[in-house]
Each structure stands twice: as C-alpha cells, then as structure tokens.
Amino acid sequence: MNKDYMLYDICTNNSNDFVGIRIENNKLKINFPLGYEFNQNKYKIRKDIILLIKVINKYKKLKGKNYDNILNDLEQDYNEFPLNEYLLIIEDFLNNGYYNKKINIDNKTDAGKINWKNTIKKIKPYIENDELYYLKYICNNTINSKDNKITEVHKWIVYESFLKLGWLFTENLPDKPFISYNYTMFKKIILLEKESTFNDIKLKILNAMLNILEYYSSNFENRDIFIGVNKFEYIWEFMINNIFGIENKKEYLPKTQWYIEKTHHKFENNYLYPDTIMIKNNSIYILDSKYYKYGITKNVNNLPNSSDIIKQISYGKYIKNKFDNKNIYNIFIIPGNLNSELFEYIGYALEENNKPEYLFEYIITILVDIKKIMNIFLTKDNLISYELCNFIEEKTKNIVVK
Predict the structure, then answer these.
(1) DSSP secondary structure string, 242-263?
(2) Which among 81, 278, 295, 398 could bridge 285 via Cys, Cβ 3.0 to 4.6 Å?
(3) Is the distance from CB of 336 to CB of 370 less than 8 angstroms?
(4) Same-domain pairing of 218 and 329
(5) 363 pLDDT exceeds 90?
(6) One domain, residues 263 and 156
(7) Do 237 and 205 share a structural domain?
C-alpha cells in the first residue's frame, strides 16, 4: 500500500455512511463519526485512529452475533480480518522485539538461580564442624536457542503486519525478512513451538501468528479491507446506554395491544423501547441518543423531528403514571465536538399549543463530546452519570410548569 500521503488528508468526519478504515484498491480512507475532531498532528492522529478501532472492536465483542446486523455484505469481511492479531503482533514487537526461543541450562557456576535439588545430587559439599558448605552450585540459566527458525518466521509475520497496519504506529518498517513465504513450513514451525511453550503470553503471540498466516494464505488476503460499520448510530446509542443506562428497563417500557371486535381477542404488541433509562436518587432520566448532524452544522433542520418529540413525551407519561413520586426528565443526546467541555446545552423541544404540566414534556437537548464519550466507553468512568444528572438539573431549574 502506498504510504506517500499525510494521514490527515485521508480522514473525514462528516459521513452518515461508513465509519472506520477502508483499504480499497490499495488506497486508504478513514472515516470518523459525526462531530469527531481528529488531530492534525501526524502522531496524535494515530491515537485517534486507534481509539476508533478499539471502540468498534469493543462494540463488536459486546454485541456478538448481533454485530452483523449493522454491516452489509462487503463489510462482513471484517469478521475474517484478524485485526486483533495484527495489532498484538505489532504492539508486542514494538515493546519486546522479535520472538526468541529460550532454553534453560544447568551449569556449575555462581551466576543464576541456584537449583538446590541438582546441587545436592551432583556437588560434593565441604564439611567443617559437622556443617555442610557448598563452594560451587548448579544454577539455572536461560539462553537464546541456536535454533532460530521460529524467530525467522516471526520476522516474516511482523513485516507482513507492518505492511497492513504498521502505519497506525509508525512511519518506519522493520527490516525485510530473509526467509521467503512458505505456508506449510511456517505452520509446522509455529505448531512445534506451541507444543514446547507453556508461557501464556508467548502462546498468545504464537496463536496470533497462526491466524495471520491462515488469513494471508486464504483468498481474503487479496480482498479490500474494511474495519468499521455502515451505521455508527447503533454504536452511538450503545455507548450512551452502556455508560449511563440501567440494564433492566422492562418496567419503564410502554406496551400497546390490539382488540379484534369479531373474535373478541386481544393481541399484545412488542414493547416500545427508549434508548436509555438513567436513574439517580429520586429522579428518572429518559435519554434518546440521536446520531444527527446538528453538532456539526448547527442547522435546526438537523434536530429531532416531531415524531421523536411526541415519542419522548409518551415515554414520560407512561413512566409518570407508574412512578408518580419521581422527578422525570426527557433528554435528547446529540454528538458534537466541544473541545474542553463534555456537555453543551442547546435548548428544549415541546409539543406546540400545549402548556406542559410536567417537566418531562420539555425535551432537554444536549450536545455531548463524541471523542470523550468514546474514551469513557473504553474506560467506564462511573462518576460521569452524576455529572450528566447535575448538568441536566442545573439547566432545567428555571423551566416553569403549570
């Protein structure tokens, strides 16, 4: 892949379509989510790209098979691309260098860890005043094996990994390996090394090497690479719910039913699901995550429409009927770039020609910094919910209901 470009020049953040990394016809393109402000510095922008990959990867892991629902057939290739294995090989190489096979030997020496069992067996002690003294010991020492076949295979895997994704970490390539690609030989060497290895970290490296080898040897190697999703709004909703929401929302979900006159039968519809229910102290917060462009455009036509607003009010009425003693808030959450801030108050929506009786009939609308949310999604800051609650209550304290 041609690397004669600036990463900044191939990045965008204004697409409603694919979000992630595309390598098509040997050309790289990176699409960030709406509102994500990526850095212009060539080193810091790499951190932005890695953050994007990690968020998509975590979402995929947590959603499991349901992840496929937000991919089309083209992006299904992401399920075959060994992303984690490539990243593991690169990061391990940058931290630890090439894989070396090490062997333990026992020597008569003063250096190394004393092997008392062998020392007692093989070394004659010196006796003085009925006490035993050992002037020499059998010590364990670890040295690099002269058999470096696994190291050479690792060099080839590392080089292949850097060709694919090394640009995420550095502009430089490792030395080109002397060994030529040989699937059968490479696989045999890796499997033999696995049989004699009991170190969990090394086993992870060896398994990653195997997966990359299998991918390279398959038809997938010649395909374009897609690491991402076509509908980032699902990830946006999932992140907000994961960070702020409760797990069991069932008692807060409105449900409808049909009555059929001719048969006198009733049929229940599915629950109407709000995106997120957040509960703090004596308050219930109904959050609706909207992956809309308003955070970029500031165009009011990019705000939630009437059907969104009426639906939120319906949620509020249902919950108010069940929990009359609770304070109930309705909130739209929209992504944006807020620099140093996490939240920004936009205003509120309400039903026209209807004087609200309750606070939940005002749909508070808040911009949330998408980059900070992505970082929080990876680290799970438990205090962030309290910050949002305090922010909402502060912005609504002057709203008057009749």
Answers:
(1) HHH--S--GGG--EEEEEETTT
(2) 278
(3) yes
(4) no
(5) yes
(6) no
(7) no
> What is the number of other CB atoms lying within 10 angstroms of the CB of residue 381?
13
The residue out of 208, 228, 248 marking a domain boundary is 228
The first and second tokens of residue 57, run together, are 């990867």
121, 220: one domain = no
Q: What is the pLDDT of residues 73-111, one digit of tens each?
A: 444 444 578 888 999 999 999 999 999 876 555 555 555
Are residues 305 and 247 both part of a single domain? yes
**Residue span of the structural domain in which 138 resides:** 102-144
Contact assessment for residue 220 and residue 77, using Cβ atoms and an 8 Å cutoff = yes
Give the residue from 53, 60, 45 showing the smallest Cα distance to 21: 53
- The continuous run of DSSP H or E covering 391 comes out as helix 384-396
Could you read off the pLDDT of 130-142 as tens digits, one per residue? Answer: 677 666 767 765 5
Task: Using DSSP, state whether 264 is helix, strand or coil.
Answer: coil
Given a cut of 80, whether residue 192 has pLDDT beyond it is: yes
Tell me, yes or no, whether 34 lies in a domain: no
Residue ranges of E strands in 251-299: 255-260, 265-271, 276-280, 283-289
Tally of domains within the chain? 3
Spatial CA neighbour of 313 closest among 251, 278, 270, 359: 359
Q: Is the pTM of this model over 0.85?
A: no
How far is it, in rounded angstroms, from Cα 123 to Cα 138?
8
Write out the two tokens for 83. Answer: 């992303």
